[in-house]
Design goal:
mainly alpha
Length: 59
């Protein structure tokens, strides 16, 4: 019985996180130090940096 309850809670938790994923992401990225880390990490990735620069300096 405990196993089924655990599986049910995992499914409900996953569903709740999925439905509120943008609110959670907005809350996390609202913290300036985390946002700065994520942007710096993203700009270190060559395909992200190239894609971003192509979008910004399109011409």
């Amino acid at each position: 019985m405990g196993f089924l309850l655990r599986i049910f809670l995992i499914i409900v938790g996953t569903y709740a996180i999925y439905n509120n994923r943008y609110k959670i992401l907005n809350y996390i990225l609202g913290i300036s130090s985390i946002r700065r880390f994520v942007v710096a990490f993203g700009m270190d990735l060559p395909f992200v940096r190239d894609r971003f620069l192509q979008t910004v300096f399109r011409g």
